[in-house]
User: Which sequence fits this backbone?
C-alpha cells in the first residue's frame, strides 16, 4: 500500500499538504481509531477534526479540498475529505492494472496514410497541422471533430498526430456503464493525461466524448422535448481553458446539442458528413493500393461496393486487409474478390446495426411512351431539360439567385409511374437518387424535423444526386390548416431549401390539392400522372407481359383490355408478380381477368371511402 500510495502522489504531482490530506483519508478508510465514524457524526465539525489531525487550520484544510484543487480535480477525495472508492481498490491491491492505464494510454493502432483522407486532409488537415505546430505549450488548442458516425473521425485524429510527428494518447473509457460518474471519471483522466505529457510532442484524443460534451462536464438529464440539457456547462468550460496539450474531441453528437458557451471555446471544428459515392470509391482505391491488391479490384467493382455499403475508413481497411490475406495464403480456394468482400462487409454492417443500400433500378418494362402525363411539356423534354440543368450547374454559381432551379412536382393517383420515372431519370443521367419519405425526416424533438430536412438537402447536394421526397403531402401540407407551430416551421424549412438547393429536387404525392400554395410556385415543372390511355394500356401489356409468353391480344381480349377503367403501370406490375410463380403458361384472357380485378378493387375502395355521396378526405 505504501508503494502504491507513493505512485499516486507522483502521478498526481501532489504537494506535501495534499499528500498528507490523502494519507489521512486512507487511514480514515481503514477506520483507525474510529476517525471516519466520528468525523462523519460531527458533521461540519468533522472537517475541523481532520484539520486537527493534520496539524493545520480548518481554513487551510478547506483550501486543500477546493473544487479546482488537485485532490478534487483528479477525483482523489470527495468534498467531505473522504477517499474515492476506485482509489481504495487500487491501494489495497484488488485492482492491479497499471495506474496510468486507468486514465490514458498511448495509441499503438496502425495509422492510415494521410492521403487516404483525400479532400479532408487537404482542406482541413493542412490548416490543423499549421495551427497545432504554432500553438503555445502554455495554451492548449481544442479541436472538435463531429458529425455522422463511421466517417473516419478517430482515424483522422490519429493520422493527424502521425503527420505532426507527435505521440497520440487516448483518454481511457474505463467505466463499466454510462453512469453519472462516467463523465467525471473521464474528465479526471483528461486532466491527469495533460499533467503527465509534454505538450510539445503530444496530441490528446478524447474519443466518444458525447456524454462529456452534451452534459457540460457535470452530467445531463433526459429531456423528452429536445436535446439533453446541461446541468453544469461551467465544468466543461474550465477544462477547455486549462488543458495545455493540443486536444482533439470526437463526438457523434449534433453541434447544437452542445451548449453555445462550450462551442465558442473550441479553436477549430470539422464536420464529418456521410461520404459521397465518389469519396467512398476513392477511399476504397487508396486502401487497395496500400494492401497491394489493386490489380484484383477494378474501378467498376470498387464503385459498386462503395455504392452498396456505407462503412468507415477503418472498416474499409479491415475488409481489404482480410481480403489480401485470404488471396495470399488461401491457396486451396480460388478467392472471388467481390464475393469475399460482400461476405466480409455483410457481416461488418450487420454487426454495427446498419444495412447495405443496393442501387435502386427502375422497374423492367417501364416506358415513358406509355405514361399518361397531362401538361404542355412531354417527359422526354423534361429529361433533356434536367440534363442541360446539370451541365449548366457546373458553369454557374450556386449563389446566383437568378439561376433557375430544377424542382419537379409529380402528382396523381398511386401506381401511375411517378416513383419509377424518378429512378428512370437517375439511371438515364447516371445520377444517384437519394429517397426520403416523411418517416425518414419527421423527428420526435422540436426542431429535429427541420434539421433532418436540411441534412437531406445537404447530403444530396454534396454528391450531386437527385433528392426525391416521396409522399411529400405529409411535409408540405398547406399552412392555412396548420394547428401546431411545427407544422408551419417544417413547411418553411422546405421552402427555404427549395430556394437555395443547387441540385435536382423531385417531389411526389398522391394528393396534389393538399400542398401549400407557396410550395407550388417554387416547382419548375408540375407533372400530373393520370390513368393510362388506350395506347398506354397496349404499351404496358406488351412490355410487361411479353416475358410471360402469354401470346398476342385477340380483338376480343383487346376490347376487354381497353374497356378496363383506371389502369396504371403499377397494376400491370402487380399482375406480372402474381403470375411469376404460377405453373404453366398464362393466357391473355387470364391476364385481363387479373387486371379487371385490380381495377375493381380500387373502385370498390373509393366507393367505401364515400359517406352519403361525399368523399372522405384526409384530416
Assistant:
Amino acid at each position: 500500500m505504501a508503494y502504491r500510495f507513493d505512485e499516486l502522489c507522483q502521478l498526481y504531482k501532489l504537494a506535501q499538504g495534499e499528500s498528507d490530506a490523502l494519507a489521512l483519508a486512507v487511514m480514515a478508510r481503514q477506520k483507525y481509531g474510529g476517525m471516519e465514524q466520528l468525523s462523519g457524526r460531527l458533521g461540519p465539525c468533522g472537517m475541523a477534526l481532520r484539520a486537527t489531525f493534520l496539524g493545520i487550520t480548518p481554513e487551510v484544510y478547506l483550501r486543500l479540498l477546493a473544487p479546482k484543487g488537485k485532490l478534487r480535480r483528479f477525483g482523489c477525495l470527495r468534498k467531505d475529505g473522504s477517499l474515492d472508492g476506485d482509489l481504495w481498490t487500487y491501494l489495497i491491491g484488488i485492482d492491479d492494472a497499471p495506474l496510468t492505464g486507468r486514465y490514458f494510454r498511448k495509441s499503438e493502432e496502425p495509422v492510415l496514410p494521410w492521403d487516404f483522407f483525400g479532400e479532408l486532409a487537404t482542406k482541413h488537415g493542412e490548416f490543423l497541422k499549421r495551427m497545432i505546430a504554432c500553438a503555445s505549450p502554455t495554451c492548449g488548442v481544442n479541436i472538435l471533430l463531429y458529425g455522422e458516425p463511421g466517417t473516419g473521425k478517430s482515424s483522422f485524429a490519429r493520422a493527424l498526430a502521425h503527420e505532426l510527428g507527435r505521440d497520440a494518447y487516448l483518454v481511457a473509457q474505463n467505466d463499466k456503464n454510462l453512469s453519472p460518474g462516467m463523465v467525471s471519471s473521464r474528465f479526471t483522466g483528461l486532466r491527469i493525461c495533460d499533467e503527465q505529457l509534454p505538450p510539445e510532442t503530444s496530441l490528446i484524443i478524447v474519443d466518444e466524448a458525447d456524454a462529456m460534451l452534451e452534459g457540460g462536464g457535470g452530467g445531463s438529464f433526459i429531456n423528452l422535448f429536445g436535446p439533453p440539457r446541461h446541468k453544469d456547462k461551467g465544468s466543461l468550460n474550465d477544462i477547455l481553458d486549462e488543458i495545455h496539450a493540443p486536444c482533439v474531441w470526437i463526438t457523434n453528437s449534433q453541434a447544437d446539442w452542445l451548449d453555445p458557451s462550450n462551442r465558442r471555446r473550441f479553436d477549430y471544428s470539422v464536420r464529418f458528413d456521410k461520404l459521397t459515392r465518389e469519396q467512398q470509391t476513392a477511399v476504397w482505391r487508396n486502401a487497395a493500393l496500400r494492401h497491394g491488391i489493386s490489380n484484383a479490384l477494378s474501378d467498376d467493382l470498387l464503385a459498386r461496393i462503395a455504392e452498396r455499403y456505407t462503412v468507415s475508413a477503418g472498416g474499409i481497411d479491415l475488409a481489404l486487409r482480410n481480403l489480401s490475406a485470404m488471396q495470399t495464403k488461401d491457396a486451396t480456394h480460388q478467392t472471388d474478390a467481390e464475393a469475399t468482400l460482400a461476405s466480409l462487409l455483410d457481416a461488418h454492417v450487420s454487426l454495427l446495426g446498419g444495412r447495405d443500400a443496393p442501387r435502386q433500378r427502375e422497374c423492367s418494362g417501364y416506358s415513358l411512351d406509355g405514361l399518361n402525363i397531362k401538361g404542355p411539356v412531354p417527359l422526354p423534354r423534361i429529361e433533356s431539360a434536367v440534363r442541360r440543368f446539370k451541365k449548366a450547374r457546373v458553369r454557374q454559381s450556386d449563389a446566383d439567385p437568378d439561376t433557375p432551379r430544377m424542382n419537379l412536382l409529380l402528382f396523381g393517383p398511386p401506381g401511375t409511374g411517378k416513383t419509377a420515372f424518378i429512378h428512370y431519370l437517375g439511371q438515364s443521367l447516371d445520377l444517384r437518387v437519394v429517397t426520403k419519405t416523411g418517416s425518414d425526416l419527421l423527428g420526435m424533438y422540436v426542431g429535429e424535423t427541420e434539421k433532418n430536412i436540411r441534412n437531406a438537402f445537404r447530403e444530396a447536394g454534396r454528391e450531386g444526386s437527385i433528392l426525391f421526397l416521396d409522399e411529400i403531402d405529409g411535409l408540405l401540407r398547406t399552412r392555412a390548416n396548420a394547428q401546431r407551430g411545427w407544422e408551419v416551421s417544417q413547411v418553411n424549412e422546405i421552402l427555404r431549401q427549395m430556394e437555395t438547393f443547387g441540385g435536382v429536387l423531385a417531389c411526389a404525392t398522391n394528393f396534389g390539392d393538399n400542398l401549400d400554395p407557396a410550395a407550388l410556385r417554387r416547382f419548375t415543372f408540375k407533372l400530373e400522372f393520370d390513368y393510362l390511355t388506350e395506347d398506354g394500356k397496349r404499351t404496358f401489356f406488351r412490355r410487361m407481359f411479353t416475358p410471360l409468353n402469354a401470346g398476342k391480344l385477340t380483338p376480343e381480349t383487346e376490347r376487354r383490355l381497353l374497356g378496363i377503367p383506371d389502369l396504371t403501370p403499377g397494376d400491370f406490375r402487380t399482375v406480372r408478380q402474381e403470375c411469376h410463380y404460377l405453373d404453366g403458361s398464362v393466357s391473355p384472357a387470364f391476364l385481363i381477368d387479373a387486371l379487371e380485378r385490380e381495377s375493381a378493387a380500387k373502385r370498390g375502395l373509393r366507393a367505401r371511402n364515400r359517406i352519403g355521396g361525399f368523399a372522405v378526405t384526409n384530416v
Q: What stands out?
A: Confidence is low (pLDDT under 50) at residues 175-183, 216-225, 356-362, 610-619. The two ends are 73 Å apart (CA to CA). The first strand starts at residue 104 and ends at 106.
